[in-house]
Amino acid sequence: MTVFGLLLLALALFALRQNLFVVLGCAAGYAYLVWGDGILDYIVLDGWDSLNRDVLLSIPLYLLAGNIMAGGAIAPRLVRLMSALTGPIPGGLAIATVLSCALFAAIVGSSIVTLLAVGSIMYPALLKAGYSRSFALGLVCAGGTLGIIIPPSIPLILYGVMTSTSIADLFLAGIGPGLLLVSLFAAYSVFVNWRLRLPGWDVVELRAALVSGAWSLLLPVIILGGIYSGYFTATESAAVALFYALFVEMFIHRELDPRGLFRITVETTRLLGSLFPVLMMALSLNVFLSYQQVPAQIVGILNQWFDGPASFLVVTNLLLLLVGMVMDMGSAILILAPILEPVAQAQGIDPVHFGIMMTVNLEIGYLTPPMGLNLIVAMGAFRVDFKTVCRAVLPFIAIMLVALVVVAAVPRLSLFLLD
């Protein structure tokens, strides 16, 4: 009949391989029966009230916009432009892959969509240009993770909702760590591929790529510029992104017809049908536990274990690295963010900085077995076995661990734009 009983119940259900909706539903039922009035109807009522937020509209809008662009011409045109700009640089096509992932991430906010949209084009191009299969495979998998940290980011939206942290501040704070990862990936690409034969500048192709990709380049400028200039909120920016993607793909590029739009909408709806029930249950449980002051009790217990912020950050990062190996990012944020964020605040850590650190940490989980989503997607998309893709990402995991240490140790990297 304690908090430990709730944790034991959740661990037992995970051990029995139950899905997250069942785990959260049983945990919520336990909490309402033990601490509440025993009226299970409140689970639905609290969940509905929690879902009734404008900011949550941004998730389906960004996902739909991203899927439209991934299936249309915006992604290929961005890739063509980046390739024309960086081709004559040592490792130029690899740098183009990283920059294309970063730009596409600044539009869609999803790792899987970024990996599929850019990787399906750049992976065969890298092989044809003479890059090793291992490097090309690792690069597109790692580049896809940029969709998680570079704003707008769906995981950052989830963190903001679960911890009542400003999503606009989280988006702004993600720019510094995102640029750090882009720079590290690009530098590694140059270092590894310094001796590759380079094409010369093709002015005609560069001019054609600029004309072709002009509409694609405008989208991240409109989205991020609109948010940070105050013209529209994160939710409104998602609606703008969707409208812009539809307009460009259907009337400018003419790569999308009504039948294709219907298919993409159905696919996106299926994905949301699995996400939002879990989100509702997590929010319902969070509301009830907050009302019962359970997070405050957990803060009191955990604060006795740490000597200061440094020890808390070390232990938390090790915990999150382990969690990222066995749990997808969305589930980890829904479960752990409401527990760890109050402890971080009690240790004097800025909640925005902690959210960015948590996101960068769990981002590594997309590349670590056995649950690395980018590894699983790459297996199917590029027809390679699991062992091969795991080996390919090892150098990039090391790079991301270095970035994680920098992000955790240097809060200014995340917060300097907020100041």
Word description of this protein:
- This protein has helices at 3-15, 20-34, 41-51, 58-71, 74-86, 92-108, 111-128, 133-144, 146-149, 154-163, 167-173, 175-192, 203-229, 234-252, 258-291, 294-303, 309-326, 329-346, 351-364, 373-382, 386-409, 412-415.
- The chain is mainly α and 419 residues long.
- The chain has one domain (25-415).
- Helix 3 (41-51) crosses helix 15.
- It is globular and about 70 Å long.
**What Rg do the Cα atoms give?**
22 Å
The percentage helix is: over 70%
Shape: globular
> Proportion of β residues?
under 5%
End-to-end distance: 45 Å
Briefly say what this structure is.
The chain is mostly helical and 419 residues long. 79% of the residues lie in helices and 0% in strands.
From the structure above, extract its key features.
22 helices
Secondary-structure blueprint of this entry?
Elements: H1 3-15, H2 20-34, H3 41-51, H4 58-71, H5 74-86, H6 92-108, H7 111-128, H8 133-144, H9 146-149, H10 154-163, H11 167-173, H12 175-192, H13 203-229, H14 234-252, H15 258-291, H16 294-303, H17 309-326, H18 329-346, H19 351-364, H20 373-382, H21 386-409, H22 412-415
Helix pairs in contact: 1-2, 2-15, 3-15, 4-7, 4-14, 4-15, 5-6, 5-13, 6-7, 6-8, 6-12, 6-13, 7-8, 7-20, 8-20, 8-21, 10-18, 12-21, 13-14, 16-18, 17-18, 17-19, 18-19, 19-21
